Amino acid sequence: MASTSRFIEACWGRPHDRVPVWFMRQAGRYQEGYRNLRERYSFLEMAHNPEICTEVSCRPVEELGVDAAILFSDIMIPLGPMGVDFDIREHYGPVIAHPIREAGDLARLHMLQPEDDLPEVFLTVEQICRRLGSVPVIGFAGAPFTLASYLIEGGPSRTYQNTKRLMWEQPSVWQGLLDMLAEATVRHLTAQVRHGAQAIQVFDSWVGALSVEDYRQFVLPVMKGVFNRLNALGVPTIYFGTATGSLLPLMRQAGPTVLGVDWRTPMSEARSRVGTQVALQGNLDPVTLAGSWPAVEDHSTHILREMSGDPAFVFNLGHGVPPEAKPDNLKRLVEWVHQFPGPA
Ligand code: 1CP
Fold first, then answer.
1. Cβ atoms within 10 A of the Cβ of 277, count?
2. Where are the chain's structural domains?
3. pLDDT tens, residue by residue, 144-171
4. 150 is known as an active-site residue
5. Strand, helix or coil at 56?
């Protein structure tokens, strides 16, 4: 497909020739070229260098033949100019110097001015678009809940106990923090679209830690506001989280064009929970990619059969590509998915 991309068409639920495929975290340590760069630069040095980000974003398209590129950056990047002192630690993740625990901590944050604060990110988006031509570039940002969870916990967490307690015990601080992060997320994504992103994904990776009732009360209203504003940009919007099986109907109410599904929920089950007015993206268990090809073929074929004929389906993983993934599995998987026809 030259001018219209099968990925964009599938997001809108329109006819396309083949099942489209891309992978969350398709740029990363499983690639030898990425590991070589990481020997010379820290993750944050890479993330602020537009030449490196452009190169790293384009390689998966050129090496694997996926149907979209995703900007190489991180959900934490906009928080730096907002006044958050953080680092990204190897084999661990983000670490925040002064976690947010009360109203006074919130007062230290200031609003993102995307183009003034992060010109390198938008230059990267422009450079990727120029290099890839008709292959669409996906912009992304973290969702307010997931960003808040890092800011409150101070780093990765298994229980999210500080986050939940702040949400329950200091609702006005919670609301203030989520509103501020929502505004920054919308501004950051709007600027990415202005510079050429043809779709945007909001990563709410850890929102599955919440009960349905807590999601409904403490997160859904904010996300409705976010997607209401993002949808006005005219590009497909994708909303992804892990362990969200029971939250999917409410996440659909937030209003994205596409919902991401992790591997725990069968795609057919996700479809029956959310109806046909939203596209679905997912959901191969990323661990299969570290093993031998037959498990990748079995699991992906199951998904492709479940979604066969569905006009609004994008093949992806249930979460990001792990560092242990075998590059050859990813390459074969793209070819395998592309053998399956899209809906006429
Ligand atoms: O050491 C390294 O080389 C850094 C590893 C790494 C990479 C490759 C981090 C640190 N971030 C990234 C890039 C990244 N992060 C992308 C690149 C685009 C792509 O190819 O997909 C994207 C989309 C992200 C987004 C991101 N960062 C998310 C949402 C997606 C997800 O995986 O859930 C989250 C939760 C983060 C935080 C983060 N940054 C880095 C790590 C290891 C983590 C996760 C830590 C944790 O488990 O809490």
1. 9
2. 22-266
3. 999 999 999 999 999 999 999 999 999 9
4. yes
5. helix
Convert the pLDDT of each residue in 92-151 to its tens digit.
999 999 999 999 999 999 999 999 999 999 999 999 999 999 999 999 999 999 999 999
- Rounded to whole angstroms, the Cα distance separating 233 from 5 reads 18
Between CA 142 and CA 148 the distance in angstroms is: 9
What is the pLDDT confidence band of residue 26, given thresholds at 50, 70 and 90?
very high
Average pLDDT over the chain, rounded to whole? 97
Check pocket membership of 203 for ligand 1, CB cut-off 6 A: yes
Out of 6, 34, 67, 74, the active site residue is 74
Q: Is the distance from CB of 118 to CB of 141 less than 8 angstroms? A: no
Using the mean position of ligand 1's atoms as its centre, give its distance from the Cα of residue 25 in Å: 7
Pull the structure tokens for residue 322: 């792990």
What residues does 293 pair with on adjacent strands? none
| pLDDT tier at 3, thresholds 50, 70, 90 | low
3-class secondary structure, 305: helix
Q: What is the dihedral of CA 156, 162, 168, 169, to 10 degrees?
A: -150
DSSP-assigned beta bridge partners for residue 260: 281
Q: Is the CB of 27 under 6 A from ligand 1?
A: yes
- From the list 340, 144, 21, 40, the residue with the least C-alpha distance to 56 is 40
The C-alpha atoms of residue 48 and residue 37 are separated, in whole angstroms, by 14
Neighbours of 7 (CB within 10 A): 25
Which residue type, as a one-letter code, is found at position 211? S
* Long-range contacts formed by 104-111: CB under 8 A, 24+ apart: 106/173, 106/176, 106/177, 106/180, 108/83, 109/82, 109/83, 109/84, 109/180, 110/82, 110/83, 111/82, 111/180, 111/183, 111/184, 111/187
Domain 22-266 listed as CATH 3.90.600.10 = no
